[in-house]
Amino acid sequence: MVRFSGLKPPYKKVPPKWLPAYEAHIRTVEGQVAIVAAWVLLITVIFYQFSHELRLAHRPDLWLTELFFRIPVLLSTSLTLLSHYTGKPLCQSRYLLRAMGLSVMVMILGLFLIHYNGRTADTYQIINGMVISFFGVAILSVRGSKEWWLMFALPLTVFALVTSAQGLALSELLPFMFDPLVMMVIGIVTSEALRQLRAGEFLARQQLREQATTDQLTGLLNRRAMHTLLEQEHSRAQRYGTTHSLILGDLDRFKRVNDRYGHDIGDTVLKEAAKRLSSHMRAQDVLCRWGGEEILILLPETDLAGAMHVAEKVRRSLADEPMLAGEHSIPQTISLGVTSCHGDDDIENAIKRADDALYKAKDGGRNRTEAIAPP
Fold first, then answer.
1. N or C: which end of the chain has fewer CB within 10 A?
2. This prediction's pTM
């Protein structure tokens, strides 16, 4: 049995932590697809409505009937373009895509029924239109199988019921439906391939972004990423007059751990410390590896008293229980410096106050929390 070990599937399941970002990415793709599809459909439908004389089977008497079936397409495409160009979305792009897809299916299946007379020559052009439409509707299904049932199963089921009510046998229609159904399958496969490519591209981009902003050892944010978040929080504080706090921490006598047990054990202690500290963070709090064995915590909308409470929980999470690293049980404590910041404060000054408070905790005997209030 031959194994292609070097080949990997183009799509991997999106991790839960990236699902909100992936959903936002899909909504962006849906918006782009919706605009392109709306223009293509609008131009195509109008052209076909006013080009009866160019067709092999010219039926002027069906002009109004054809317009009736094309009106839903014109309405859904117009709504999509109106939402986009006015900057006031009247509906989410996913629903606009579904509306366009369903209206195209209703239109093309309805036109087939009014033009069908059992003769291949007379239905040639409408079959070509079905082939193009089935493929195009499949491409509109950005979310994959969730859309296919709605786009195809529902309209084709209604179509089968209508044809049965008209006394048309399935065996009679199948030769005319064969090519459109094959193109539907091809479109679905193409749509799924595009979906997997989009997911793969998204994962690769997220992984690169995470590598650029994450400390590889602990999994915490790195200093560069933290600076960006500090600036954002500082701007928000200036705008809304809120208060946020900083906690700067340093593992006590960590150099002794590396010297006594080796750097591998030291790395294990760092990772365990990061894990314990993270367990005491709220969803809006941010924890980063500031450098070496230093950590920095950003607490949005938290005053100095609240930050001291968090700092004490963080300190106890390390001090109350030794860390298991290999065969070793290692007691590890942390010293913490706390300060709060207002909108008119300076980021560098705030970090300097937290650093001064940290040195105060170190000088006071370590394994303690000290605070310096803002001026």
1. N
2. 0.64
